[in-house]
Design goal:
Length: 459
């Protein structure tokens, strides 16, 4: 018999879906529809609204884990932190576990998520077997790759709530060993692409298996690929939840060992390297800052406070410093264009470090709203921070130049953060006509906000 475990019963799930549907019906027609949840991993400000949000309070759990079939039934607002806690005791994890603990499974599927398994496991939506979606018409339908709602299934990824919200997802799970052994390999910019191509083709590097791969470019002349392999060996492991900082270790040691749990969340404690903006990497501040509060959702709330009150920006101006533009983006660049894009980025933007994460579609199918090519390896380049701008520069000038360069290099940009495209360009890049055709079926009264309105106009 399959092993099962869950924190939410099917009865509780059905009751929660009923409350969700009732809350949807209470939102007046013409008013914005949003989730009423405490955390978010979106990085674009949104227009404030007074209407109540959708009640998703009962949709945060794991319904069941089938260890024999290697599947799980999960509620849409379940965080990856809670999902991993339910699957890891079986030696199983989602095929792709995004880096931040409070990303939800539904959010990673309707948006995009990647991690160091994405060079072989693709994107989170590719491991979804079926999902229940609350549509704009107020119905809950079960969408699968084939059948009545196949068009909704295929168009849901990268729709960001414009087609509805996932209430339940059945996903595939992957095996993971108790430990992950790491190698940090330093490479030149021109060597990154060929090394990634070799790993994708062979699943090995220098004769050792590679199960996970990502990397960091610290400067135009210093870049690393971090290669991970599953290991059952019980050796001394590192701990980056205390005084040590993970990303700095990449430069300091050629190899490392982490528990599977700590490997999956290695980036969360310091929000990659962005915790430095709050002083959390200062050794004295770090000693006083409780470890339970050194996590990505806490930093995100601090960013939200700054977005609302602009305290740091006002202090910066009073000191006579140049205004700064927020540049928080993840972009997918074809691997053969990676070195060229990084050189352009160094010359025109100059932010460092940047994250590098290879990915490719897991299968031969493509997905309408984020047209990555099947059989092509891309590298996610992630950069998160601010840059100084000249007096009188237009709002979003740096981000617009990045958007243009990404297109020039044959890439695509994720929509979780600021976007500045004009309507025509946006509709072409994100295949909005295909979205509109499906939206007309499942949201005939246009109750859900459109993708351009969400991503660009911040509604």
């Amino acid at each position: 018999m399959p092993s099962t475990s869950g924190s939410t019963s099917t009865v509780e799930h059905d009751q929660a879906v009923g409350r969700l549907r009732a809350s949807y019906q209470r939102i007046p027609p013409g008013e914005p529809v949003r989730l009423a949840k405490r955390s978010s991993n979106l990085f674009r400000p949104r227009t404030a609204v007074d209407t109540p949000g959708l009640d998703v309070s009962g949709l945060t759990g794991v319904i069941s884990v089938d260890a024999e079939a290697r599947t799980a039934d999960v509620q849409g607002m379940c965080t990856y932190e809670d999902l991993v806690a339910a699957t890891l005791p079986y030696g199983l994890v989602p095929m792709v576990v995004p880096q931040l603990k409070t990303i939800t499974l539904g959010g990673a599927v309707t948006g995009l998520g990647i991690e160091s398994s994405s060079f072989r496991a693709g994107l989170p939506h590719e491991s979804v077997l079926e999902l229940d979606i609350l549509t704009g018409a107020g119905d809950v339908v079960t969408a699968r790759p084939t059948g009545e709602h196949a068009s909704l299934f295929r168009t849901f990824p990268n729709s960001y709530g414009t087609l509805g919200y996932a209430t339940r997802l059945r996903i595939e799970l992957d095996r993971i060993s108790p430990y992950v052994a790491l190698r940090h390999v330093r490479l030149g910019l021109d060597s990154l692409g060929p090394a990634i191509d070799g790993i994708v083709a062979e699943g090995t590097y220098d004769g050792e298996p590679v199960h996970f791969v990502d990397g960091v470019a610290f400067s135009p002349t210093e870049a690393y690929l971090t290669l991970g392999r599953n290991s059952d060996a019980a050796v001394r492991t590192s701990d980056y939840t205390g005084q040590q900082i993970y990303y700095r270790s990449i430069q300091q040691r050629p190899s490392d060992f982490l528990t599977a749990h700590d490997y999956l969340w290695r980036w969360d404690t310091d929000w990659f390297w962005c915790s430095a903006a709050f002083g959390a990497q200062n050794r004295w501040v770090r000693r006083l800052w409780p470890s339970r509060l050194r996590r990505s959702d806490v930093y995100h709330r601090l960013i939200g406070l700054e977005n609302r009150h602009q305290v740091a920006a006002r202090i910066n101006r009073r000191r006579g410093h140049a205004d700064r533009e927020r540049v928080v983006q993840d972009v997918e660049i074809p691997v053969d264009q990676l070195a060229g894009f990084l050189r352009w980025f160094d010359a025109e933007v100059g932010m460092r470090p940047v994250w590098l994460c290879p990915l490719r579609l897991r299968g031969s199918d493509t997905w309408p709203l984020y047209p990555l090519a099947a059989g092509t390896t891309y590298v996610n380049v992630g950069f998160w921070g601010t840059v100084a701008i000249a007096p009188g520069a237009a709002d979003g000038d740096v981000n617009r130049r990045i958007e243009a360069a990404v297109a020039d290099f044959g890439g695509h940009k994720s929509l979780y953060s600021d976007a500045y495209y004009d309507r025509e360009t946006f509709d072409r890049l994100y295949n909005v006509p295909a979205l509109t055709a499906v939206k007309n079926v499942y949201d005939p009264n246009a109750r859900l906000t459109g993708l351009y309105e969400k991503a660009v106009t911040r509604r």
